[in-house]
Amino acid sequence: MTTINPYLNFNGNTEEAFNFYKSVFGGEFLVLQRFKETPHAHEVPADVQDKIMHVALPIGQGNILMASDTLESLGHPMTVGTNFSLSINTASEAEADHIFNGLAAGGQVTMPLDKVFWGDYFGMLTDRFGIQWMVSYSYEKQK
């Protein structure tokens, strides 16, 4: 397992929150992608096109704070108190499979592990204790 980082969800104000975090912690965003910049942009309502699909801000040594706008209009209701996940970035697909399947035992898979449009092998689940996890392997590390 390479790293574990917090992944936060906001109800439409991710950009405001992350500009605040950037002012507190410093640094620059590694990624700031809007819904209009995704291959599925045509499926997203016009009023949320500029909302944040993914943002990543490095904090300290090897930690990355990440987030997205979790919008009800896109079928993703956000509930304060459960609006975060732990994101695990693995060293291989095999490790991703092992960790994902282990955490999924007795839990609920919300997105099976698969290759996704941003180029990673990625999946999401809620374990049997109610903790939300994102598991990914980045093929870019192998280039």
Notable characteristics:
143 residues; alpha+beta; 8-stranded mixed β-sheet; 2 helices; 38% strand
Give a description of the structure:
The chain has 143 residues and is an alpha+beta fold. Helix content is 17%, strand content 38%. The radius of gyration is 15 Å and the shape is globular. The two termini are 19 Å apart.
Approximate helicity band: 10-25%
Structural class, please? alpha+beta
- Order of strands side by side in the largest beta sheet? 2-3-4-1-5-8-7-6
- Our Rg estimate from Cα atoms comes to 15 Å
Oligomer description: single chain
Shape: globular
- Biggest β-sheet strands, sense, barrel: 8 strands, mixed
- What is the mean pLDDT? 87
Number of helices: 2
Q: Beta-sheet strand percentage?
A: 35-45%
Alpha-carbon distance between the termini?
A: 19 Å
Which stretches of 5+ consecutive residues score pLDDT under 50?
Answer: none
Helix-strand string: EHEEEEHEEE
Provide a quick synopsis of the model.
The protein is α+β, with helices and mostly antiparallel strands and 143 residues long. The protein has helices spanning 14-25, 93-104; strands at residues 3-10, 31-34, 52-59, 63-69, 84-89, 108-115, 120-126, 132-138.
Topology:
Layout lengths: L2 E8 L3 H12 L5 E4 L17 E8 L3 E7 L14 E6 L3 H12 L3 E8 L4 E7 L5 E7 L5
Parallel strand pairs: 1-4, 5-8
Antiparallel strand pairs: 1-5, 2-3, 3-4, 6-7, 7-8
